[in-house]
Write a structure and sequence with these properties.
By secondary structure, this protein is an alpha+beta fold. The strands form two sheets. It has a two-stranded antiparallel ribbon with strand order 1-4. A two-stranded antiparallel sheet has the order 2-3. β2 and β3 form a beta hairpin. It has three helices and four strands.
Length: 90
Amino acid sequence: MAERSGARYGNGRNAKGEPPSMSGRTTATSATVYVIEPGVCMGCAACVDVCPTRAVVPRDGLFAIERSLCDGCGLCARYCPLRAITPVQR
């Protein structure tokens, strides 16, 4: 399986492997969550590496966002190189 380090995917993690500063989070209401479009996602795992709530989970060989864990921050969408992640209302 491919390596999933920050350096490998350029996902903004610092040298300690910490996710990007939360100051860059989008302003989302608690009614907003994000979903991954299965036909667009190619499994690069950039979203997995930046999700502060670990809402991005493996599903059917790719990834999906567990809505109950998503806090609507939008970091996953910001770091997805394919723009496969979009906001939706809960």
